[in-house]
Amino acid sequence: xxxxxxxxxxxxxxxxxxxxxxxxxxxxxxxxxxxxxxxxxxxxxxxxxxxxxxxxxxxxxxxxxxxxxxxxxxxxxxxxxxxxxxxxxxxxxxxxxxxxxxxxxxxxxxxxxxxxxxxxxxxxxxxxxxxxxxxxxxxxxxxxxxxxxxxxxxxxxxxxxxxxxxxxxxxxxxxxxxxxxxxxxxxxxxxxxxxxxxxxxxxxxxxxxxxxxxxxxxxxxxxxxxxxxxxxxxxxxxxxxxxxxxxxxxxxxxxxxxxxxxxxxxxxxxxxxxxxxxxxxxxxxxxxxxxxxxxxxxxxxxxxxxxxxxxxxxxxxxxxxxxxxxxxxxxxxxxxxxxxxxxxxxxxxxxxxxxxxxxxxxxxxxxxxxxxxxxxxxxxxxxxxxxxxxxxxxxxxxxxxxxxxxxxxxxxxxxxxxxxxxxxxxxxxxxxxxxxxxxxxxxxxxxxxxxxxxxxxxxxxxxxxxxxxxxxxxxxxxxxxxxxxxxxxxxxxxxxxxxxxxxxxxxxxxxxxxxxxxxxxxxxxxxxx
Length: 529
What we know:
With 529 residues, the chain is of the alpha+beta class.
């Protein structure tokens, strides 16, 4: 655990990619194999099942530290991170252990069937056996909150360099349904394989955004252009007579989309890349319908009828058992079209249509129809492009439409987390409904550090009421909020929910009375909802 706690601390202290890669390489070369495997699992979102809720951790910490609950809550709101708060409040002990990361994870998993009192005793015993840095990581293991700026791509690179294995091979091996309890580091990473697990998807190829205009890309004739669909990116895999459906988030979602099980009739050794999307009567439906199915364990007949799902395929990665990702984009597209032509009897198998444009200016005009198509914009792919791994410049570009915007008044403020724990950085925005301000969105990104400090000072000077960590403020500051979509929502006081709201800019040029109204939001809802 000491080695992993040191890894965690070193990663958290640098923002430099090369430094993080070197730190990870050192760990993976030095740590025991079982700890390497668990570190990989933690950094790739395969975390131990939580055995204790955070409410109990708060209570137990306050009890063990001998402090009132209110002091714990004030400390938490100041620090901004639960695990760090707990590690700072717990009494310092002289006890020390040399148990490994794996030992402590097994220790937590063994709590599963214990009574609450026994769990408390074992957690306190663990706290007494660890130093402050180890306690911090141990509590992170309990809560599952590992956010230290290490992407899976970074971990993949570090493993590849440490063991001199091609990065794309490592990326493929890390995908799929593996768990440290069921496989060894040797078998997962180092062992050469003639045939990988049938269910494993390929690493996804991600597009870079076009910030301005694609005219710098050269002749439009060199590019394949499609709509950027608003759904869940996924791969459908047909191997060994079975169908497997993976989301880009590396979640096996086969059981969540029974409409797509018909793909099982495709030729064995087929892998499709595309978008899982609500679809009916020959056209996409709102992403909001897809959200009604996300997270549901049981899919009722009513849900299946109200939110029908299809798969819009836009790439073919494996054909007749052969990996064809190195083939040019237009070759893969031609094979995909032939496949679709042979299986038009599968109603949920939709071929992503190509967009024809004579020039970039013509394409710019067509892009204005994106919202009518329920698309986020366009995908621009070079006809000679291979299907690569991760986000690489040059061959795949996404040209999204400008977001919708609305001006809102800050009504509430709350402190942030991590390095922003001392600042009020999370805001609730409101619009006017007559003489009343109605909350419609929360936003916390898009401002500079200097602006955040200025707003923090405003909040502290203009607080009207305090509700725990939340402050009601004098309604003066106006912010332009950008968002990707809008929909009805009975759960929100405004009756409206926004998709991906964020702060576009601080409107210092506007007074609160000049902010938008609920009627303005409803007008956007009628057009784009």
